[in-house]
Amino acid sequence: MADNVDSMLTTRGLKDGFELPLQEFTGVLDSYSSSKDEKFGKLRVTFNFKDIKVIKSSEPYNFPIAPIRINFSEQKKSAWGIFSNSANKFMPDDQDLPWLKGKRIHMAMTPGHNFGKDRQTNEPIIRDAWEVVGIEGIAGKVNPEERVIDILDGKTDVQFNQAALGDPILKTSPTLMDSLVNQTLLPALEASGKIKKDEAGVWHRVKAA
Question: How many CB atoms are closer than 10 A to CB 159?
Fold first, then answer.
């Protein structure tokens, strides 16, 4: 038996963990449920989408359904916080998660979100996260300039450019995208006192007095 086990042990040809290849899609939110991750002690929420229309995927995705999993958190700088903030821009102020059921939602895995700082290195933790970028038949409350500042906060120029130029919401504003490419937007926001850069080259939102 030991010989059989030893023959299976290898440092070669290891497999990646399964990750849903979807990066952007529209789909009808059919249901959602929660479960406890016993290993890490986190509450994980699974959103079950149907009637999927793929917009962007790292590999072909031919299934009509998609389970999107997001860990629940009470912190704003978390995957749940990013998702919640994006969804709230489309939902009525007196509504919550159940309101989203049955609606066709445009979801996107967007880059460059600031999740705070690493406790050991003090370096910013920048990660991708799922966001609601549109809901069919619903006008959003997304201000493109505020979106830019949200993306910019806590990032260097390089990190911001990588995140902003691929952002599905900013792409809907050709004028704003032109100002990003022409490098006129950030100087204008800085001159107006809405953003500032620290000595390390990291941008920050300037909070209103």
Answer: 20
Q: What is the Cα–Cα distance from 105 to 101, expressed in whole angstroms? A: 9
Closest residue by Cα to residue 157 from 198, 116, 119: 198
What is the Cα–Cα distance from 2 to 104, expressed in whole angstroms?
54
Question: Residue ranges of the domains in the chain?
Answer: 19-141, 142-209
Question: Mean pLDDT in each 10-residue stretch from start to end of the chain (209 residues)?
Answer: 51 54 95 85 92 94 94 91 92 92 94 81 85 88 82 88 84 83 89 92 84
206 vs 209: CA distance, rounded Å: 9
DSSP conformation letters of 108-176: EEEEEEEEEE-TTT--EEEEEEEEEEEETTB-----HHHHHHHHHTT--HHHHHHHHTT-TTGGG-HHH
Angle 85-87-91 from CA coordinates, rounded to 5°: 115
CATH of the domain spanning 142-209: 1.10.10
Residues 6+ apart with CB under 8 A from 86: 131, 132, 133
pTM: 0.70
Query: Token pair for residue 56?
Result: 């962007």
CA triple 200-179-146, angle to 5 deg: 65
- Residue 39 is classified by DSSP as T
Of residues 176, 181, 180, 126, the one with CA closest to residue 154: 126
